[in-house]
Amino acid sequence: MDALSLEPTLYTVKAVLILDNDGERLYAKYYDETYPTVKEQKAFEKNIFNKTHRTDSEIALLEGLTVVYKSNIDLYFYVIGSSHENELMLMSVLNCLFDSLSQMLRKNVERRALLENMEGLFLAVDEIVDGGDKDVEKYRSGLGYKKISEPLNIPRSTIKSIIKKLKEYGTTTNLPREGRPPKLTDQARQGED
């Protein structure tokens, strides 16, 4: 291994994966060409799930990659980096992703809730991992719903609703909603008469 390959880099994350308790892909985002085809990606995901789903540790070395992972109810979260990557840095990314999803899903981090809030997951990953602003860019570059949804294993209807939201509001984030007006005025809340 030459000295150049151990130089510090901002590109620490090679992939972010979320699998269900059967090892099926719910979300996968690869940031390099280590596994260029969907077939290779799914084989890697099956291998990683088989090696990690029955262990209590949080770090594994697999196929020359450092894998940090966490499970919760019926979900397995993985962040993958190169074999010489700092495990603490990868674990920070994993914890940030999990904590963000926990906040968005109101501490209900499970398969059903995640599938109902995929746009939040896309946004969280895009914000946490540099180079992640590409999901919506795929649509803008001319790819159709089917070509976007298949590699991610997400229903076309979900992709369609995300794109619709982007077109209508200019963002994929959840916007504040109107609700019942407050009973107390600002002045009453501050304790002034």
UniProtKB/TrEMBL annotation:
Gene3D superfamilies: 3.30.450.60, Winged helix-like DNA-binding domain superfamily/Winged helix DNA-binding domain. Residues 136-173 form the Sleeping Beauty transposase HTH domain. CDD domains: Zeta-COP. Residues 12-133 form the AP complex mu/sigma subunit domain. It is found in: Cytoplasm; Golgi apparatus membrane; Cytoplasmic vesicle, COPI-coated vesicle membrane. GO terms for biological process: intra-Golgi vesicle-mediated transport; intracellular protein transport; retrograde vesicle-mediated transport, Golgi to endoplasmic reticulum. The keyword Cytoplasm applies. The coatomer is a cytosolic protein complex that binds to dilysine motifs and reversibly associates with Golgi non-clathrin-coated vesicles, which further mediate biosynthetic protein transport from the ER, via the Golgi up to the trans Golgi network. Coatomer complex is required for budding from Golgi membranes, and is essential for the retrograde Golgi-to-ER transport of dilysine-tagged proteins. The zeta subunit may be involved in regulating the coat assembly and, hence, the rate of biosynthetic protein transport due to its association-dissociation properties with the coatomer complex. PANTHER family: COATOMER SUBUNIT ZETA-1 (PTHR11043:SF2), ZETA-COAT PROTEIN (PTHR11043). Oligomeric complex that consists of at least the alpha, beta, beta', gamma, delta, epsilon and zeta subunits. This is Coatomer subunit zeta. It comes from Hucho hucho. The lineage of its organism: Eukaryota, Metazoa, Chordata, Craniata, Vertebrata.
